[in-house]
């Protein structure tokens, strides 16, 4: 099989949560530029609409803003996608939040906000869209759910982001159990566990913290859009046809060599 066919995603339909910026935007760009019809959702409508307008100059990108930390909004998003599509080839559960505070002062609000968006929405949005995912899958070509975990769910981070680290460990393991029970219906579930990429979330880390990350990564840098595009295209294409339940670190070796 030629490489063009092995890694092609042309003609597929995808939904990316948290798709207006950061890692979600990187994946959205990669998919649109390679022929995927992409739906993006994010809480801030203006940013979501603006990116969809920009990406639509080179492909097809549709904005459906919403707050998927809420079950009613998950249902609304599901209904909107169902009204437009008969199948969904790729679901990227990327939307996420973090909260940093020391152990003694860490608030319940910082726990619940992060858990609801980072873990609860991954499960319930996939549940809501499972019929469309099953409609896209076949024994020869499974549909794909790609959850965005984190290396902070693998290693013990130097940051006091308790709910974030716990939530991403949850996403990493939720990926495995979803993979086990959805694969019989021709839906392959995998996760990307990113290291540090430029985003609003990592922008909150001070200069000393950012340098600490770079110094401790064997590749001595943060990730870039091409790094994320490569793994996202791989997990959505025939190239990963026998990959199921994997949690793949994309971190320059930061978590896997410490």
Can you describe this structure in just a few lines?
The protein has 258 residues and is α/β, with parallel strands linked by helices.
CATH hierarchy, class: Alpha Beta
CATH superfamily: NAD(P)-binding Rossmann-like Domain
- DSSP strand (E) fraction? 5-15%
C-alpha Rg, in Å?
17 Å
Largest sheet: 7 strands, parallel
Structural domains: how many? 1
CATH third-tier fold name:
Rossmann fold
Determine the fraction of residues in helical runs and give it as a percent range: 40-55%
Average pLDDT taken over every residue: 93
End-to-end Cα distance? 37 Å
Low-confidence stretches: none
Shape: globular
Helix count, DSSP H or I runs of 4 or more residues: 9
Strand numbers in spatial order across the main sheet: 3-2-1-4-5-6-7
What's the count of strands?
7
- Taken in chain order, the helices and strands follow as HEHEHEHEHEHEHHHE
Based on secondary structure, the structural category is: alpha/beta
Short descriptors:
258 residues, Rossmann fold, 9 helices
Please give the structural blueprint.
Layout: H1 3-6, E1 13-17, H2 22-33, E2 37-41, H3 45-55, E3 60-63, H4 71-84, E4 90-93, H5 108-136, E5 143-148, H6 162-182, E6 187-194, H7 200-203, H8 207-216, H9 225-236, E7 247-250
Parallel strand pairs: 1-2, 1-4, 2-3, 4-5, 5-6, 6-7
Helix pairs in contact: 2-9, 4-5, 5-6
